[in-house]
Each structure stands twice: as C-alpha cells, then as structure tokens.
Amino acid sequence: MMTGDFCQEQLQYCFPSSNASCIKAQLGVGINFALYLLFALGMLVTILGNSVVIMSICHFKQLHSPTNVLILSLALVDLLVGVIVMPFSAIRTVTGCWFYGEDFCLLHSSLDVFLTTLSIFHLVCIAVDRQQAICNPLHYSRRITMSVAVMMVCISWALAAVFSYGLLYSKANIAGLEDYMASINCLGSCYLLFNPLWGILDSVICFFFPCTVMVCLYTQIFVVAKEHVRKIGDMSNWLIRAECKAARTLSIVLGVFIFCWMPFFMNSIIDPLTGFHTPGLLFEVLYWLGFFNSACNPIIYALFYPSFKKSLLTKFVVV
Prior knowledge:
By secondary structure, this protein is mainly alpha-helical. The protein has helices at residues 2-10, 29-59, 66-95, 101-135, 137-143, 146-169, 178-184, 196-232, 238-273, 280-291, 293-304, 306-318. The protein has a single domain (31-170, 203-318), classed as Rhodopsin 7-helix transmembrane proteins (Rhopdopsin 7-helix transmembrane proteins, Up-down Bundle), CATH 1.20.1070. The longest helix is centred in the C-terminal third of the chain and has 37 residues, at 196-232. Its main location: membrane.
C-alpha cells in the first residue's frame, strides 16, 4: 500500500488542478535536455536553410525559372513546418502534454497533414517539370512557363487544403473510433488518429500513389537522359548536362522524402488494423523522422543543385 502511495505521489500531471488531466512524460532531466537540443537544432536548420533557399531564388535572377518557382514554394512549405508545426510538436513529445486546447490541437493536426500533403504534391509537380525538360526539350519552354508553374503551385495548395482540412474538420478520419477516443482522452492530450479506411486512403492518396508516379517519371527521365548521352557521345551539350544534374538532384530530394516519410505512412496503415498498438516511442521516432525531411531539402540543394551552388558561391565571392 505504501509503495502504491509512493508511486502515486511521484506522478506529475499536465494540469495538476484537474482530475481529468493526462499524466506527464517522465524522461529525466538529461533526456529532456538532449531532446530539446535535437529538436531545436532541427528547427534551426529547417528555418535557416529554407530561408536561404527562398531568399536565393528571389534575389538571383538566374534562378528565376519555372522549376525554381516550384522549389521556392516547396521551401516555403518546409519553412512553415519549422516555424509553426515543429515547436508545438517538440513540447508535446518531450512533456507528453498538449497545453494549447482542443481547437488549436485540431488546427495543428490539420496543418501537419496539410503541409505533408502539400510537399508530396510539389514533388509531383517538380517531377512533371523535369520530365518535360528532358524528355520534350524542344517544347519545354512553351509548355512549362512561369505562369504554368505558378498555376501548378496554386492548384497544389488548394487541393492539399481541401483534402486535409476537409478530412480532419469533418472528423471522417475518426468515424467509428468514438469509444476508443473516449477511453484514451484526457485533459492535455492531442492525438492524430485515422480509422482503418482513412489510414489506407490517406497513405495511398498522399504518399504511395504520388511516389509511384514520381518514380515512373524519374525512371523515364534517366532512360531518356542515358539515350541522349549515347547519341551525343562526349556530352558536349552543356544544357543537357545541366538538366541531367538538376534531375539527379531532385531525384535525391524524392529519395530522401520517401526515406523519411514511408515508415510513418506504413505505420498509418498498420496501426489502425492492429488496434493502435504502436509503442509511443516508436510513433514519436517515425513522426520526427518525417519532420526532419524539411531540414534535409535545403542541404541537398546547397550541396548538389548546380544553379544554387553557383549562385551562392558567386554571392560569397562578391561579399
């Protein structure tokens, strides 16, 4: 009895004044510090890196192209992840508590789904742009203009918003989970759950189908590029070389996106079908692995994208 009382005294609650409060995560001071440091570093890289990409595209005229309009919008999406989504998620992960109310919980979850969906839509647009540039180079400048790129961006933002906010605010994603939600609900909780139907549909619509399309497009790109190399021989055409390098860089962006988000979307399908038995620690790891994708993209641009490397090096040499 004394042991039970002692354990009860050691528990800390998100809202101590409420009997319905969730229990705080108790990870220890050292682990809390390490997690906050890791998340702060991830947010810093995400915010600074994507800000550099945005400012570079806006500042350097040589970067004003349809492809870079799409990359600019993708960088803005990643920047919003670092500024709006990651800070609140970091606090929830470390403390195990949501301190900001049910309304902001729903808004935050919707933003999370919205920005993730928007990222994949941008990557599809970029893949289409590169496919046209390399597979139909004679018609590319006529088909993919700045206006077309802006239209692709606007359509991506609109479709992602309708899907994410429509799904979560209609509560279609938790239909049939009312009993389960009631059993785990407490003051200070904020869960993003999908029933078996929407766990599959969301993963297919927002990840697996777009990724399949992009893999097919990039496969076609590299087959055609290889044929160009065979015909030209010594690759004397600098334009084809530049286009191939750009396509290779953007395929790395796609590969990193798949690596970061596939485990999460696989779990989104499996978890509802197995009664939501994914361990909390594993879920947080998968969740943050996806977030850190937003920090990887600007690093890839800086290291591998020829136009960005040239512009940034020119800027630093001038300075």
